[in-house]
Amino acid sequence: MSKYILETKKLTKIFGKQKAVNNVSLKIEDHSVYGLLGPNGAGKSTTLKMFTGMLHKSSGDITFKGHPWSRDDLSDIGALIETPPLYENLSARENLKVRTLLLGLPDSRIDEVLEIVDLKNTGKKKSSQFSLGMKQRLGIAIALLNNPQLLILDEPTNGLDPLGIQELRDLIRSFPEKGITVILSSHILAEVEQIADHIGIITDGELKYQNIIDPNENLEDLFMTVVKNEKEG
């Protein structure tokens, strides 16, 4: 069996006359954290949305667990893309209860995911009163409800204060040992450097670099070299 939980070959997404994603071939290793890097507008979110069924690919292949990706695979994929989908007038537990009813999951799963994201003690506090970091963690809890094998997080630390970033970093790093592979998109290089095992760098819709993170290499220097070479080319 392939050691890659997800692979793409020449994955392409076209909007009108614009190629937002152009021939991207990713290899996401099982039980790892993969950092998808790129400037704003590089095509990161568009790529991730094709893995979650939010967008249809224009061409190319997506392989999940060794077979062609289909919407049936969404039962094994969790995602937090853009703003956490919260009912702000409901508590953390109530937000999760709505989803368990929709997904036909047991209530026991609510306590399990609240434990994972450290929100068990929020009681009846409405999510509208949560800090941004707590809202992000609740969004991740929702994404974890279906016990996914692959978790997709798009810019999860955006807008967080240093404490929120640290808490989220520790949470994300804990997932591979729980059997969850993470794809994390970001333009904050220092965060990815501390979380990811592998990185891919996308610029102008094209994957320009993909490798294991080298602790002896400065990620910012590597990123700037890759992006500048693309612009000069």
TrEMBL record:
<keyword id="KW-0813">Transport</keyword>
<dbReference type="InterPro" id="IPR003439">
    <property type="entry name" value="ABC_transporter-like_ATP-bd"/>
</dbReference>
<keyword id="KW-0067">ATP-binding</keyword>
<feature type="domain" description="ABC transporter">
    <location>
        <begin position="6"/>
        <end position="229"/>
    </location>
</feature>
<protein>
    <submittedName>
        <fullName>Lantibiotic protection ABC transporter ATP-binding protein</fullName>
    </submittedName>
</protein>
<dbReference type="InterPro" id="IPR017871">
    <property type="entry name" value="ABC_transporter-like_CS"/>
</dbReference>
<dbReference type="InterPro" id="IPR027417">
    <property type="entry name" value="P-loop_NTPase"/>
</dbReference>
<comment type="similarity">
    <text>Belongs to the ABC transporter superfamily.</text>
</comment>
<dbReference type="GO" id="GO:0005524">
    <property type="term" value="F:ATP binding"/>
</dbReference>
<keyword id="KW-0547">Nucleotide-binding</keyword>
<dbReference type="InterPro" id="IPR022501">
    <property type="entry name" value="ABC_Gallidermin_ATP-bd"/>
</dbReference>
<dbReference type="InterPro" id="IPR003593">
    <property type="entry name" value="AAA+_ATPase"/>
</dbReference>
<dbReference type="Pfam" id="PF00005">
    <property type="entry name" value="ABC_tran"/>
</dbReference>
